[in-house]
Amino acid sequence: MSAEASARRVGLVVVSHSAQVAQGTVELAAAMAGPEVRLRAAGGTVDGGLGTNAERIAAAVEEADAGAGVVVLVDIGSAVLAAETALELLPEAVAARTRISGGPLVEGAVVAAVQASIGEDVEGVLRAAEDAANLRKR
After folding, report:
1. Model pTM score
2. In angstroms, what is the C-alpha Rg of the chain?
3. What distance in Å separates the CA atoms of residue 92 and residue 120, rounded to the nearest whole number?
4. CA 69, CA 12: separation in Å to the nearest integer?
5. How far apart are CA 137 and CA 35, in angstroms?
6. 42 three-state secondary structure
7. Residue 114 and residue 62: Cα distance in Å, rounded?
8. Neighbours of 70 (CB within 10 A)
9. Residues 65-76 pLDDT 10s
10. 82-96 pLDDT per residue, tens
11. CB-based contact 61:86 (threshold 8 Å)
């Protein structure tokens, strides 16, 4: 893979109501994917409480975007609404290549990060994140 192709991997943003859950999920996914994948945590509120923040999510998407798209993984309920609002705050081109996953947060982030690390496109990374809902644990 060329250096340019390597730099244009799909990025991931992990959105959780808990900053610690988001950061821990990013750390786990990064350990599986390696440093080539841009992973960003967007958890909690700006004052450090539980919740989500659309501006924080939008900023994380812009940081994770290398031109190949971004998959946003969310935990529960209002995280989806905050991620959808974040898309409205982004430049049109970035929003157009960003997808919100309906898959599980942790398992989805790990498998999505691995797929991104091998150069899968944004639709493939999204599919992997959502298919993680079917992973058997035992």
Report:
1. 0.93
2. 14
3. 22
4. 9
5. 27
6. strand
7. 20
8. 29
9. 999 999 999 999
10. 999 999 999 999 999
11. yes
What positions carry a catalytic annotation?
A: 17
Q: Are strands 70-74 and 39-43 parallel, antiparallel or unpaired?
A: unpaired
- The tokens for 128 are 């992997």
Q: Evaluate whether 118 touches 40 at the Cβ level (below 8 Å).
A: no
**Per-residue pLDDT tens over the stretch 1-35:** 444 544 689 999 999 999 999 999 999 999 999 99
Where do the domains of the chain lie? 3-130
The size of the chain, in residues, is 138
Structural tokens at position 31: 């350990």
Q: Which two tokens stand for residue 117?
A: 């690390």
Question: Is 80 exposed, middle or buried (CB count within 10 Å of its CB: 0-12, 13-18, 19+)?
Answer: middle
Q: Which CATH number fits domain 3-130: 3.40.50.510, 3.30.70.20, 3.30.540.10, 3.40.50.11690?
A: 3.40.50.510
